[in-house]
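User: Quick sanity check before I run a bigger batch. Here is a single chain. Can you write out its predicted 3D structure?
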Amino acid sequence: MSEMICVGVISGAFSVQGEVRLKSFTADAMAIADYAPLSTEDGSREFDVVITRSISNGLAARLSGVVTKEDADALKGTKLFAPRDRLPELSEDEFYHTDLIGLEVRDTGGTVLGKVKSVQNNGADDMLEVHGPGLKNTVLLLFTRASVPTVDLASGRIIVDPPEGLFE
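Assistant: Done. Predicted structure follows.
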């Protein structure tokens, strides 16, 4: 079976007819339905997805087998996954967040700064959350070509050129 990628999460019920509030993690939010059926993390359930409309902070959707508000409420917090081979191929300078998490982070001089703990989005840009030895807290680094000139997935590392003092 191909690697499973988290493409969204159910954030609760939307209507008394069993619609759910759905947060999509795909580049085009509505495209989440294109990767269905989506499964739970443990693979115990699969859902066909029909997007009914855009709503504040997400989408309203119908999931197969979810017919009541109680069904939808019971799924709150459930992450939805699609096989990686159903997702589109990316261009050379695009990356799935899941591919960046865990990569070793080095500065342009080769010093190991830590590892990518997560990828955050502030609404405008992606930011890498880096944690490593000698850091009291995680560091957020803007994920731009200027700050991250090299991403080498094959070697499992990225090279960063952080602003002065960021990793001190």
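The chain has a mean pLDDT of 91.

User: Great, the batch can go ahead then.
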